[in-house]
Design goal:
Layout (H helix, E strand, L loop, with lengths): L1 H27 L14 H31 L8 H23 L13 H31 L4 H22 L11 H36 L4
């Protein structure tokens, strides 16, 4: 719901501007912005009820997966606090599933990109999400292995960081390029992109913080002995 509030107040203005540009372009080419299809859900419902339903459902689904991941990594993360574990895990997943893919394939409004290539673009994006999560997992495993071998923190962190940069660079070089925005206004484009990234940041930050606080409360409520 936090992500829904952010998206409603910060993201919706850029979405509305992009839709208006798309409709203007369609009329300018002698076409119909609705392509002759009847609209069953109004724009106001989409940007209100639909938006909060989508973000709420996504948050619940992602939260369930996060809980399973936390249960697996809880005893394997180098921390004595569930608060730190929760925030660290949320940050790592955000980096692999959101931030790295955003740097290669930033979110685009409806008017950007050829509709006929949406399938290929979606496949490339999902492939990058999966591979970048594997890179994050590999970095964690490498750091854990080097720590177990007694490697000093500066050397360990520098080696793992360099490895992540190299692997991400390889992914960026080998995967297809992001579509050109064409003549789409740069201000509206980046407002849309940054608000999309901000929505994901609020989602994962809220998830890590709230989950961590609930874990700490549950730990304090456990009977002693």
């Amino acid at each position: 719901m936090l992500a829904g509030v952010f998206a409603y107040f910060i993201g919706e203005p850029s979405v509305e501007a992009a839709i208006q540009l798309e409709e203007a372009a369609a009329h300018g080419h002698g076409g119909d912005a609705d392509h002759g299809e009847e609209i069953f859900v109004s724009r106001s419902i989409q940007s209100g009820i639909g938006l909060f339903f989508a973000t709420g459902f996504t948050g619940a689904f992602v939260g369930g997966l996060f809980g399973l991941a936390f249960a697996y990594f809880r005893g394997r993360l180098n921390s004595e606090s569930d608060w730190v574990r929760s925030v660290s895990l949320a940050a790592a997943i955000f980096g692999g599933a959101v931030l790295v893919p955003f740097l290669k394939y930033p979110a685009n409004p409806p008017a950007v990109g050829d509709p006929e290539t949406i399938g290929a673009r979606t496949a490339s994006y999902l492939m990058l999400v999966a591979l970048s999560l594997i890179v994050v997992l590999g970095a964690w495993y490498a750091a854990r292995t080097l720590r177990a071998r007694g490697i000093d923190a500066p050397i360990r962190q520098s080696a793992v960081g360099l490895g992540v940069v190299v692997m991400v660079g390889v992914l960026f070089f080998t995967l297809p390029a992001s579509p050109s925005p064409g003549e789409f206004p740069a201000g509206t484009l980046w407002q849309f992109r940054l608000s999309s990234l901000g929505t994901q940041l609020v989602l994962w930050a809220g998830l890590g913080v709230v989950f961590g606080l609930l874990c700490e409360r549950a730990n304090r409520a456990k009977p002693i002995g």
